Amino acid sequence: MQSLELANIYLDNARKTTDPYIALTLCHDTEVSLSQASRGSKRLKLPVVLEGISVAYVQLGWLLKNRRLHHESEAFYKKAEKLGYVEKNSVNRQTRII
User: Which of 14, 42, 64, 74 is 20 to 30 Å from the Cα of 81, by its Cα?
Assistant: First the structure.
């Protein structure tokens, strides 16, 4: 799914940048792409894609938490839980989304 791949690119770049404003913009772009991917995968009933999206939301939360944006990070953790992410899955948060 293209929007999930695009989210992955945004997220990778957000991790790499040292500029906090660029990082936040890339995180927003990641969220928009994930939202599009989520709508498409729910409509097509693609649980594997939904799992990838929930992992991406956890990765966004982790990134924002490390940048001391705790309120924003919690919102992404909640989105991941809503999509069915379970902490016991123990995701390596530095890996690709898909």
Answer: 14
